[in-house]
Amino acid sequence: MSIQWKGIMPAVTTKFTDNDELDLKNFEINIKAQLDAGVHGIVLGGTLGEASTLSDQEKRKLTTATVDIVKGKVPVLINIGEQTTTNAILAAQKAEEDGAKGLMVLPPMRYKSGDRETVEYFKAIANNTSLPIMIYNNPVDYKIEVTLDMFEELLKCDNIEAVKESTRNITNVTRIKNRFGDRLKIMTGVDTIALESLIMGADGWVAGLVCAFPAETVAIYELQKAGKIKEAIEIFRWFMPLLELDIIPTLVQNIKLAEVYTNLGTENVRAPRLPLEGDERQHVIKTIEDALKNRPTLPDYKNL
């Protein structure tokens, strides 16, 4: 296994300038903050990364820039969310050329593929890259569920190694462990149930609010790993109002606004997304400001 599927892997936001170009300066500030906090990997070009608005050239630029910033300290993964099998294979091969160490792969976009089609799609990608793969299982948002029986077939591909478990059903963690043991690593993908998922045996957390609050996110993981559940729960309870900003359609705008308040990014999003306004904006600001007023003092979580 070439990636240690564990710990905190931020699904990072993509930074844009006022002219709607990649803002690699602010992007680097955020990535370095994630590394300083002790994250275990970086995931590019997911929903939070506004993948659907990025050109192929921009995705490649983000990948090579991140690889350069990270310098091998943690693995860099890029998301693949394509409409055709051919384009998904090409994206995987370009990611490998650009220095990515792994892939997070969504089911086919737009077309609601059946079980057999979904399995063949994932297998085709896996058979045309040497990179390790994490299947993104999010039927709530993408309307396609990868069932345990489907994983039984998919795990015949040695490089399909992990699942980003986003079904919102914590019992799936136990079902996966009972069925596959450590053969299929579990990265929980829903911020609001992350701690519960970790306690039940998930190996790590592909996180969202970590973009603005990296230390707190890593601390929760490290505390629960060390058996300090009470301490992890205290931070998680403080975190919950912020985490709930990650499970609504405006999650990108919400988290980018939080990044502004923690000096880790800008509010710029790419159309058709627009910055928040009105009562919605005021609600998010109040949530962030309330959290900052009561921000917990963290233990020395790196040396537990």
TrEMBL record:
GO BP term, pick one: N-acetylneuraminate catabolic process
Pfam families associated with the record: DHDPS
A GO molecular-function annotation: N-acetylneuraminate lyase activity
Active-site residues, as the UniProt record annotates them: 136, 164
Binding residue positions for pyruvate: 206
Keywords of the record: Lyase
InterPro entries the record matches: Aldolase_TIM, DapA-like
GO cellular component: cytosol
Domain of life where this protein originates: Bacteria
Homology family: Belongs to the DapA family.
Protein's name in the database: Dihydrodipicolinate synthase family protein
Organism: Gelidibacter salicanalis
